[in-house]
Specification:
alpha/beta; 2 domains; 308 residues; 11 strands; Rossmann fold; two-stranded antiparallel sheet; seven-stranded mixed β-sheet; disordered C terminus
Length: 308
């Protein structure tokens, strides 16, 4: 409920109920028309819908996972939750009062080898947070994160079948998935912090960290500084997962990103080896020194497949 007063929230629920009855009778031509009918005049501005469960013969052929993904892509929800086991539930049931490790990425490769690397990435973040909290605390929740937003401003957003293909590959690793409407990390922490005051940690490859620093954030008045302030002001830290030097160099060339250097003492590059030309480099060095960005050690048996 997004309205500030109880009376307005009651009014919005009433409109939603009328919409639901009408759509059940007259808007069953497609999933899209049904949800648009339910949302008319109330959702986005006054109500957020982050979970849907339909029952009855009229809905037997509808893909529930596609419905959840459509809630996000159409702007009805900031995020929806896909469990690796059991039925779907609202995000609040997966996140409520839990310490959380988020592994955001594109995850375009769905083969077994990449799945193992992605699982290793998330497992390393969960172990880092367990070490940080102490073994007496409950185990953190670990979730992969995808977004319906395009990976770059000049690209088209991913289509829902492709998103579900990637989600299924991640669920097959035994881990849960959050699908977000927006791709910026500070939006993800804002959503998770609705439901928990416990620590929130990201575990990401160096390429995503560099992208987070290089993005202009033109939608924010304070640009890059405001984006980083929003992220790290919300009890969040980033566990920086290492990358192979050749993979990192190739990604920098492909993304046309300049100004980043490192001491190449081993095959693997960690965040502590990265340097950025000033003045942005001063901010990166500060975040490292203050443990807002925490380098993760290279696992002994890590594959050489690039993390994407």
């Amino acid at each position: 409920m997004l309205d500030p007063a109880n009376i307005l929230q009651q009014e919005a629920i009433g409109i939603l109920g009328v919409n639901l009855i009408y759509s059940a009778f007259y808007e069953l031509q497609s999933k899209e028309s049904f949800l648009e009918g339910v949302a008319q005049d109330v959702v986005k501005e006054r109500i957020e819908i982050d979970y849907i469960d339909l029952r009855g013969p009229a809905f037997e052929t509808w893909d529930r996972r596609m419905l959840l993904a459509h809630l996000v892509s159409a702007g009805f929800a900031e995020a929806v939750f896909f469990p690796s086991k059991g039925p779907a539930v609202p995000p609040t049931e997966a996140l409520y009062k839990k310490a959380v490790v988020l592994a955001p990425g594109y995850f375009g490769h769905v083969d077994t080898a990449h799945a193992q690397i992605h699982a290793q990435l998330l497992a390393s973040g969960i172990q880092e947070l367990r070490n940080e909290l102490g073994e007496t605390k409950p185990a953190p929740a670990g979730l992969f994160c995808l977004t319906v937003a395009p990976s770059a401003p000049d690209e088209a957003p991913p289509d829902i079948p492709d998103l579900l293909r990637r989600i299924d590959a991640l669920l097959a690793t035994g881990s849960d998935v959050l699908l977000f409407r927006q791709r910026e990390l500070y939006h993800m922490t804002a959503l998770v912090n609705r439901y928990t005051t416990a620590p929130v940690r990201f575990v990401v490859g160096l390429s995503l960290i560099i992208r987070a620093f290089e993005d202009p954030y033109g939608n924010l008045e304070g640009n890059r500084l405001e984006a980083l302030a929003r992220l790290f002001a919300q009890n969040a830290r980033i566990y920086a997962y290492p990358m192979i030097a050749t993979d990192l160099r190739e990604w920098l060339n492909t993304a046309s990103v300049h100004g980043w250097e490192w001491n190449e003492t081993t095959e693997w590059i960690s965040a502590s080896q990265l340097r950025r030309a000033p003045p942005l480099g001063h901010l990166f060095a500060y975040l490292l020194a203050s443990n807002f960005i925490v380098p993760v050690q290279v696992p002994a048996a890590l594959s050489t497949i690039e993390l994407t």
